[in-house]
Protein backbone atom coordinates (compact mmCIF):
# COMPACT_ATOMS: atom_id res chain seq x y z
CA UNK A 1 0.00 0.00 0.00
CA UNK A 2 1.42 3.44 -0.92
CA UNK A 3 2.42 5.70 1.91
CA UNK A 4 0.02 8.53 2.57
CA UNK A 5 0.21 11.71 4.63
CA UNK A 6 -2.24 11.71 7.49
CA UNK A 7 -2.72 15.48 7.52
CA UNK A 8 -4.78 15.79 4.34
CA UNK A 9 -5.92 12.25 3.45
CA UNK A 10 -5.94 13.13 -0.27
CA UNK A 11 -5.98 10.37 -2.87
CA UNK A 12 -5.88 10.16 -6.63
CA UNK A 13 -9.07 9.66 -8.65
CA UNK A 14 -8.97 5.85 -8.89
CA UNK A 15 -8.21 5.46 -5.19
CA UNK A 16 -11.04 7.83 -4.27
CA UNK A 17 -13.53 5.81 -6.32
CA UNK A 18 -12.51 2.62 -4.50
CA UNK A 19 -12.89 4.28 -1.10
CA UNK A 20 -16.23 5.91 -1.87
CA UNK A 21 -17.59 2.66 -3.26
CA UNK A 22 -16.58 0.76 -0.15
CA UNK A 23 -18.02 3.43 2.16
CA UNK A 24 -21.30 3.44 0.28
CA UNK A 25 -21.53 -0.32 0.70
CA UNK A 26 -21.01 -0.01 4.47
CA UNK A 27 -23.61 2.76 4.88
CA UNK A 28 -26.24 1.61 2.37
CA UNK A 29 -28.20 -0.50 4.86
CA UNK A 30 -28.76 2.55 7.07
CA UNK A 31 -30.23 4.68 4.25
CA UNK A 32 -33.32 2.53 3.48
CA UNK A 33 -34.75 2.59 6.99
CA UNK A 34 -33.87 6.29 7.32
CA UNK A 35 -35.86 7.24 4.19
CA UNK A 36 -38.95 5.46 5.51
CA UNK A 37 -38.66 7.14 8.89
CA UNK A 38 -38.15 10.58 7.31
CA UNK A 39 -41.21 10.18 5.07
CA UNK A 40 -43.38 9.22 8.03
CA UNK A 41 -42.10 12.18 10.06
CA UNK A 42 -42.79 14.62 7.21
CA UNK A 43 -46.38 13.38 6.84
CA UNK A 44 -46.98 13.72 10.55
CA UNK A 45 -45.60 17.27 10.57
CA UNK A 46 -47.89 18.27 7.70
CA UNK A 47 -50.94 16.91 9.47
CA UNK A 48 -50.11 18.83 12.63
CA UNK A 49 -49.68 22.27 11.03
CA UNK A 50 -53.27 23.21 11.90
CA UNK A 51 -55.70 22.03 14.53
CA UNK A 52 -59.43 21.51 13.92
CA UNK A 53 -62.02 22.15 16.62
CA UNK A 54 -65.82 21.98 16.04
CA UNK A 55 -65.43 22.58 12.33
CA UNK A 56 -63.19 25.63 12.79
CA UNK A 57 -59.53 25.79 11.85
CA UNK A 58 -57.07 27.53 14.17
CA UNK A 59 -53.45 28.29 13.19
CA UNK A 60 -50.89 27.55 15.88
CA UNK A 61 -48.72 30.63 16.51
CA UNK A 62 -46.06 28.63 18.25
CA UNK A 63 -45.32 26.45 15.23
CA UNK A 64 -41.80 26.88 13.82
CA UNK A 65 -41.41 28.46 10.38
CA UNK A 66 -40.87 25.36 8.26
CA UNK A 67 -39.63 27.46 5.32
CA UNK A 68 -36.51 28.63 7.16
CA UNK A 69 -33.19 27.05 6.31
CA UNK A 70 -32.83 23.65 7.90
CA UNK A 71 -29.28 24.51 8.91
CA UNK A 72 -30.60 27.41 11.03
CA UNK A 73 -32.45 25.03 13.34
CA UNK A 74 -30.40 24.56 16.48
CA UNK A 75 -32.00 23.26 19.65
CA UNK A 76 -30.15 23.11 22.95
CA UNK A 77 -31.23 20.63 25.60
CA UNK A 78 -30.22 20.73 29.24
CA UNK A 79 -29.30 17.55 31.05
CA UNK A 80 -30.19 16.84 34.65
CA UNK A 81 -26.71 16.14 35.91
CA UNK A 82 -23.35 17.91 35.92
CA UNK A 83 -23.31 17.98 32.12
CA UNK A 84 -25.98 20.69 32.21
CA UNK A 85 -23.54 23.60 32.57
CA UNK A 86 -20.83 22.27 30.27
CA UNK A 87 -22.48 20.22 27.58
CA UNK A 88 -25.20 20.77 25.00
CA UNK A 89 -26.77 18.74 22.21
CA UNK A 90 -27.26 20.39 18.83
CA UNK A 91 -29.84 19.21 16.33
CA UNK A 92 -29.00 19.97 12.72
CA UNK A 93 -31.69 19.12 10.21
CA UNK A 94 -30.79 18.32 6.63
CA UNK A 95 -32.07 15.76 4.17
CA UNK A 96 -31.08 13.20 6.75
CA UNK A 97 -31.62 14.51 10.26
CA UNK A 98 -28.42 14.04 12.24
CA UNK A 99 -27.77 14.32 15.95
CA UNK A 100 -24.25 15.34 16.93
CA UNK A 101 -22.38 16.92 19.84
CA UNK A 102 -19.59 19.46 20.18
CA UNK A 103 -17.02 16.62 20.10
CA UNK A 104 -18.78 13.84 18.20
CA UNK A 105 -19.33 15.50 14.82
CA UNK A 106 -18.01 15.19 11.26
CA UNK A 107 -14.47 16.50 10.99
CA UNK A 108 -13.52 16.05 14.64
CA UNK A 109 -9.91 14.95 15.15
CA UNK A 110 -8.50 12.89 18.00
CA UNK A 111 -4.81 12.15 18.48
CA UNK A 112 -2.94 9.92 20.88
CA UNK A 113 -1.40 6.47 21.03
CA UNK A 114 -2.02 2.74 21.17
CA UNK A 115 0.07 0.52 23.40
CA UNK A 116 0.75 -3.13 22.61
CA UNK A 117 3.11 -4.83 25.03
CA UNK A 118 6.18 -2.62 25.31
CA UNK A 119 5.53 -0.85 22.02
CA UNK A 120 3.64 2.42 21.61
CA UNK A 121 2.27 3.71 18.31
CA UNK A 122 0.96 7.13 17.34
CA UNK A 123 -2.71 7.15 16.36
CA UNK A 124 -5.01 9.70 14.73
CA UNK A 125 -8.78 9.36 14.33
CA UNK A 126 -10.88 11.57 12.06
CA UNK A 127 -14.68 11.30 12.22
CA UNK A 128 -16.46 11.49 8.88
CA UNK A 129 -20.10 10.78 9.71
CA UNK A 130 -21.94 10.96 13.04
CA UNK A 131 -25.60 10.18 13.68
CA UNK A 132 -26.33 9.63 17.35
CA UNK A 133 -30.02 9.22 16.61
CA UNK A 134 -29.13 5.97 14.84
CA UNK A 135 -26.24 5.20 17.23
CA UNK A 136 -23.80 5.29 14.34
CA UNK A 137 -20.54 6.95 13.37
CA UNK A 138 -17.65 6.25 11.01
CA UNK A 139 -14.26 7.65 10.11
CA UNK A 140 -10.58 7.03 9.44
CA UNK A 141 -8.06 5.59 11.89
CA UNK A 142 -4.36 6.12 11.13
CA UNK A 143 -1.58 4.35 13.02
CA UNK A 144 2.15 5.04 12.63
CA UNK A 145 5.11 2.67 12.94
CA UNK A 146 3.21 -0.59 13.13
CA UNK A 147 5.33 -2.25 10.43
CA UNK A 148 8.59 -1.31 8.69
CA UNK A 149 7.14 -1.95 5.24
CA UNK A 150 4.13 0.29 5.96
CA UNK A 151 5.15 3.09 8.34
CA UNK A 152 1.64 4.54 8.16
CA UNK A 153 -1.58 2.55 7.88
CA UNK A 154 -5.05 4.08 7.54
CA UNK A 155 -8.31 2.16 7.86
CA UNK A 156 -11.97 3.06 7.54
CA UNK A 157 -13.99 2.14 10.62
CA UNK A 158 -17.64 2.14 11.58
CA UNK A 159 -18.87 2.53 15.13
CA UNK A 160 -21.76 1.19 17.18
CA UNK A 161 -22.80 3.54 20.00
CA UNK A 162 -24.14 1.75 23.06
CA UNK A 163 -27.71 2.91 23.63
CA UNK A 164 -31.22 2.17 22.33
CA UNK A 165 -29.87 0.40 19.22
CA UNK A 166 -26.83 -1.48 20.57
CA UNK A 167 -26.26 -3.15 23.93
CA UNK A 168 -23.01 -3.82 25.76
CA UNK A 169 -23.10 -7.37 24.41
CA UNK A 170 -21.60 -7.87 20.95
CA UNK A 171 -24.12 -9.58 18.66
CA UNK A 172 -22.13 -9.62 15.41
CA UNK A 173 -20.70 -13.13 15.33
CA UNK A 174 -18.03 -12.20 12.79
CA UNK A 175 -16.39 -10.05 15.50
CA UNK A 176 -15.67 -13.28 17.43
CA UNK A 177 -16.60 -12.01 20.88
CA UNK A 178 -18.94 -13.35 23.55
CA UNK A 179 -20.66 -12.09 26.71
CA UNK A 180 -17.80 -13.09 28.98
CA UNK A 181 -15.25 -11.34 26.80
CA UNK A 182 -17.46 -8.25 26.55
CA UNK A 183 -17.77 -7.98 30.33
CA UNK A 184 -14.02 -8.47 30.79
CA UNK A 185 -13.28 -5.54 28.49
CA UNK A 186 -16.02 -3.18 29.66
CA UNK A 187 -15.07 -3.92 33.23
CA UNK A 188 -11.62 -2.42 32.69
CA UNK A 189 -13.17 1.04 32.34
CA UNK A 190 -13.62 2.54 35.84
CA UNK A 191 -16.64 4.55 34.70
CA UNK A 192 -18.39 1.42 33.43
CA UNK A 193 -17.93 -0.33 36.75
CA UNK A 194 -19.93 2.51 38.29
CA UNK A 195 -22.97 1.72 36.16
CA UNK A 196 -25.89 -0.18 37.63
CA UNK A 197 -25.39 -2.94 35.06
CA UNK A 198 -27.14 -6.28 35.56
CA UNK A 199 -25.12 -9.03 33.90
CA UNK A 200 -27.78 -11.64 34.70
CA UNK A 201 -30.84 -9.84 33.35
CA UNK A 202 -30.34 -7.64 30.30
CA UNK A 203 -33.89 -6.27 30.57
CA UNK A 204 -32.87 -4.52 33.79
CA UNK A 205 -30.31 -2.47 31.84
CA UNK A 206 -32.79 -0.67 29.61
CA UNK A 207 -32.62 2.48 31.72
CA UNK A 208 -28.88 2.70 30.97
CA UNK A 209 -29.44 2.44 27.23
CA UNK A 210 -32.34 4.89 27.17
CA UNK A 211 -30.47 7.63 29.06
CA UNK A 212 -27.03 7.16 27.52
CA UNK A 213 -26.78 10.74 26.20
CA UNK A 214 -27.35 12.18 29.66
CA UNK A 215 -24.30 10.47 31.13
CA UNK A 216 -20.75 11.77 31.29
CA UNK A 217 -19.45 8.74 29.40
CA UNK A 218 -20.60 7.23 26.11
CA UNK A 219 -19.53 3.70 25.18
CA UNK A 220 -18.92 2.41 21.67
CA UNK A 221 -17.49 -0.38 19.56
CA UNK A 222 -15.29 0.59 16.60
CA UNK A 223 -14.75 -1.96 13.82
CA UNK A 224 -12.14 -1.36 11.13
CA UNK A 225 -13.51 -2.62 7.82
CA UNK A 226 -10.98 -1.89 5.07
CA UNK A 227 -7.67 -0.21 4.27
CA UNK A 228 -7.35 3.29 2.82
CA UNK A 229 -6.58 4.27 0.11
CA UNK A 230 -6.70 0.77 -1.44
CA UNK A 231 -9.90 -0.82 -0.16
CA UNK A 232 -9.12 -4.00 -2.11
CA UNK A 233 -6.14 -4.90 0.11
CA UNK A 234 -7.36 -7.41 2.68
CA UNK A 235 -4.33 -7.69 4.96
CA UNK A 236 -0.78 -6.50 5.60
CA UNK A 237 2.05 -8.67 6.88
CA UNK A 238 2.71 -7.75 10.51
CA UNK A 239 -0.56 -5.86 10.94
CA UNK A 240 -4.19 -6.82 11.41
CA UNK A 241 -7.50 -4.99 11.50
CA UNK A 242 -9.62 -8.11 12.01
CA UNK A 243 -10.52 -7.14 15.58
CA UNK A 244 -12.39 -4.19 17.06
CA UNK A 245 -12.14 -1.58 19.81
CA UNK A 246 -14.17 -1.23 23.00
CA UNK A 247 -14.38 2.55 23.43
CA UNK A 248 -15.17 4.84 26.35
CA UNK A 249 -15.75 8.50 25.41
CA UNK A 250 -15.79 11.33 27.96
CA UNK A 251 -18.38 13.92 26.95
CA UNK A 252 -16.91 16.61 29.20
CA UNK A 253 -13.30 16.49 28.01
CA UNK A 254 -13.56 14.85 24.59
CA UNK A 255 -11.02 12.19 25.60
CA UNK A 256 -11.24 8.60 24.39
CA UNK A 257 -10.01 5.40 26.03
CA UNK A 258 -10.17 2.13 24.16
CA UNK A 259 -9.22 -1.53 24.30
CA UNK A 260 -8.43 -3.49 21.14
CA UNK A 261 -9.68 -7.06 20.95
CA UNK A 262 -8.85 -9.87 18.59
CA UNK A 263 -8.53 -13.45 19.73
CA UNK A 264 -5.16 -13.84 17.99
CA UNK A 265 -3.69 -10.51 19.15
CA UNK A 266 -2.19 -9.29 22.41
CA UNK A 267 -4.93 -8.78 24.98
CA UNK A 268 -6.11 -5.39 26.22
CA UNK A 269 -4.10 -3.18 23.87
CA UNK A 270 -4.81 0.32 25.16
CA UNK A 271 -5.91 3.24 23.01
CA UNK A 272 -5.73 6.76 24.47
CA UNK A 273 -6.85 9.79 22.45
CA UNK A 274 -7.61 13.45 23.12
CA UNK A 275 -9.69 15.85 21.05
CA UNK A 276 -7.93 18.41 18.85
CA UNK A 277 -9.58 21.84 19.37
CA UNK A 278 -11.26 23.04 16.20
CA UNK A 279 -12.56 26.46 17.24
CA UNK A 280 -16.16 25.34 16.94
CA UNK A 281 -15.93 24.65 13.22
CA UNK A 282 -18.44 22.16 11.87
CA UNK A 283 -17.33 20.84 8.47
CA UNK A 284 -19.77 18.69 6.54
CA UNK A 285 -19.09 15.74 4.27
CA UNK A 286 -21.11 13.90 1.68
CA UNK A 287 -20.12 10.69 -0.09
CA UNK A 288 -21.05 10.66 -3.76
Automatic annotation (TrEMBL):
Family, according to the entry, reads as follows: Belongs to the GID4/VID24 family.
Q: A GO term (biological process) for this protein?
A: proteasome-mediated ubiquitin-dependent protein catabolic process
Q: Which InterPro entries match?
A: GID4/10-like (IPR018618)
Organism of origin is Candida boidinii
Species classification: Eukaryota, Fungi, Dikarya, Ascomycota, Saccharomycotina
**Gene Ontology cellular component terms for the protein in this record:** GID complex; vacuole
Residue numbers spanned by region Disordered: 36-65
A Pfam family recorded for this sequence: Vac_ImportDeg
Q: Where is the composition biased (Basic and acidic residues)?
A: 56-65
Its recorded name reads: Unnamed protein product
Amino acid sequence: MPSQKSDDLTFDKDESLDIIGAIKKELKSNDVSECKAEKSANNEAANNDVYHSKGKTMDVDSKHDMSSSSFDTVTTLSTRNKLADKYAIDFFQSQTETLTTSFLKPGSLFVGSQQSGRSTYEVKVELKEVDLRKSHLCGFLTIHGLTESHPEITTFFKGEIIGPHYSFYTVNETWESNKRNDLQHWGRFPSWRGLDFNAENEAENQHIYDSYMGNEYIYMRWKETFLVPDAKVKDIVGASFAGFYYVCFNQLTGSISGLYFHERSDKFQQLELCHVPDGGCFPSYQYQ
